[in-house]
Amino acid sequence: MPIPLTAFDIFIFLASILVVLAIGLWAGRKEESTKDFYLAGKDIPWWGVAGSIFGTNVSAEHLVGMLGIGYSIGFAQAHFEYGAIVGLLILAFVFLPLYRGMGLYTLSEYLAERYDERSSVLYSAFNILTIVIVRMALGFYIGARALSYLLDGTALEIGYSAGILIFAAVTAAYTVVGGLKAVIWTDFMQSVLLLLAGIFVAALVFSQPEIGGLGGLLAKDGALPAGEQKFHLYLPPDHPQLPWTGVFTGLLIIHIFYWSTNQFIAQRALAARSEFDARMGIIAAGFLKLLIPFVSIATGVAAGFLFESRLAAGELSGLPLPDDAFPLLVQMIVPAGYGLVGIITAGLIGAILSSIDSMMNSGATLFTFDFYKRYIDPSASERKLIFVGRVAILGFVAVAACIAAVIYTEDAADNFFLKVPAQIGHVVPGMAVAFLAGVLWRRASASGSFWAMLASPAFSFMIEWAYGIWAGGTSPFAVILRDALGPQLNFLHRTALTAAFALVLLVAVSLRADPPTPAVDRYTRRRRRMGTRRPSRRFWRSERPWAWLLAAATLFMLVYFA
Fold first, then answer.
1. Higher pLDDT, 122 or 323
2. Residue 406 and residue 397: Cα distance in Å, rounded?
């Protein structure tokens, strides 16, 4: 039977929300310039950068959604974490020197200077739409759903719509007032809560007699028939959701875009007090990401065995939906009366808040600098730009809350964690190619970038439609397609094909343009050789050994859990 929150749990839960509000309002009490409001005064230490990047990325989508995928699909979901390390290292050592050297507020400014305003506007518009329609709305959906489930039967029992309003009000309050500095420091606190909650739930699950620790889980999974085992990283190429061929192609493109060319991730590194703090913060966030496969995904795999055991014992009336696995797990295994459920609930709420507030601030940054200042009021004062950003945040919150209430219904049964990359995979390839080509190939032209970004979504939908026709036939070609990639084109394979098309188009158009002038070198990797040398550091105070260690640890995981 579900374990309701006690009075002590409720106190801890409410206190955590009040503390987050207080920290956010205190941290952002002196936001007097756009540098303060949008880049936290460029005074964030490396550990603040790490906590904010981790908190921005790891939300209820991980505690709830990723655990649900581990429960329903298996450990192959860990590729979303291991692949993230690649994107973070590319950000740290390829893109970051350019971003910080150019003094950017938004990454679209890079596209505007490297290419022209056409690519910049496409990038900003896509990011704002994604932030509001997908990421903020999804955060409201999955948070309100989990919160209403956990609070069911308590004095704080609320409905799905009320949960959306709570998240909207709390995040808007301190983000509107405090800007990025408030977001970063609340993210850091919420990251600590998230890790405590996730590690505690994982420890409780693995300690259950039906599981017997990680070794017991591996043994139980290994005893299943080959087709039913879940503790493997590599699924067949025709797997409908996570084929290994798509993981090393399309998913890698998504990771490069998300971690290296994404406004709400890179903005934390832009706010660092130095390039060393920015790099070290990115690398530290990578080490934190290595915990998620065990804290969330492996726990989801273990939850599947636990649910089946409890179902056989008559303690459950049925198996839960994937997105309901986490709250049910909490109510099933966490002892009541000690405030533990309150701590876990606080961690869950903190995870959701830390992602939503980051989206708000980054979306407002894009709108303020890329649309309002550029096209509406180029001479706007610092105070006016801050005011516009605050109004934009309120507007984004209202739209996202309405979408969560109307479109993402509370009884949805899908794995929403996989639906997000599936949808953005239509647009991401062209943007990732434009950024990579801009940095790595000086011949890349403005028209090549624009057409690659603009044509990618059309090609993506076209190849998806065409594959359905080709694979649905009876010809030998159709049989080969179905045997190799399955009856339907997986979104990761579609993303890879779209990226290849975007690259070919960018190269073809660029080669028809006039050769670039030497001035373009300042926006490519040549900039490092043109600038001053990096200050030397002692081995143990350099970020590079930590980067190599992070890469080696990731490679070990990819091989060990094959």
1. 122
2. 14
